[in-house]
Amino acid sequence: MSEDLAADLDAIGSILVIPTILDIVCRTTGMRFAAVARVTERRWVACAVRDVIDFGLAPGGELPVESTLCHEVRAAAAPIVIDDVAADPVYGCHHTPAIYRFRSYISVPIRRIDGSVFGTLCAIDPDPRRLNTPETIDMFEMFANVIGHHLSAVDQVKAQEASLLDERRVAALREEFIAVLGHDLRNPLAAIAGGMRLLRKTPLNSQALELTELIQGSVGRMSGLVDNLVDFARFRLGGGLRLEKGPVQMENILQQIIRELQAGRPGRVVETAFRLDAPIVCDGRRMAQLASNLLGNAFSHGAPDQPIRVAARTEGRCFELSVANGGEPIPPDILGNLFQPFSRGTHRPNREGLGLGLYIAHQIAEAHGGRIEVVSTPAETRFTLVMPIPE
Hints:
Shape: elongated
Largest sheet: 6 strands, antiparallel
Number of strands: 13
Radius of gyration: 38 Å
Helix content: 40-55%
Mean pLDDT: 86
Low-confidence stretches: 349-354
Distance between the termini: 64 Å
Number of helices: 10
Strand content: 15-25%
């Protein structure tokens, strides 16, 4: 038996009302054999049976489909009802009653909700029975509809289970990909950074010392790119952003980020204005990443001879952080796409980075229930985070 037919048998077997249906149709009509059959173009398979006359079929038993009337019911998608073969003008000389020696017969198609024919609800008896009445036909069709709806529900559950299994497989693959991505990219950087730290402990001339500082700066920028790339993969592959919130001293975080970025860009001036009354409940690591991305963007795109201005304040239940720089304004046609991934701006094509920093910052802001606004004029370009502070 094929896997499909085995699945059909299991589906019918899972519909607990079917034995009751077969019992009712037999008691109501006097028929002594009734079945739910899976009927295809090439096969007739009994899926459920009530047999009082020892017809000899059990669930899983087959008949040659051409020898049955059910294949005609399936082809026409319409019932066949015979009270007495001997008196029937259409089926009196048909080969099927002669093969199976029945006098009365009824079969109605079982349709799924989508209209496809699964098979038939059928019954036979060696003696004539009064079947061709509206009440009997309506009863059979009602029960066939019940079975069809149950089959559609079983199909839907199986489809949902298969979809859930696929989602779990995709989720596992996604997490594995992200883990490997982060591991394989970070490990070489960690080795380079460790080597530079050891090298700086040895006597170096001024040229070598300058070279190690350049390498360390490059490693720092690469680490930021890797973090953004891993986060981008997590966002786009459906993993989402997990937050670990707690009270955070934002001024300390901002001062540390400024020092780190200035270390790689000697001579750049950063002016600060902080008015933070209390710790802010947020994910400190993610907020540091957001601030670092905004500041990194200002360092990369701002005029090097003009200061970067960083301001942070709390007012009521709101936290506001702004980063402003001088230089060329962002063209209006680019402003609308700044927070899209890989959006680096065609007006400054030679700037470093993947164009993920602002996208990641935007995602972190949204995860905290906040937003990032941007205003760009000839006087300055200012990014402002506005975020509610949880109670």
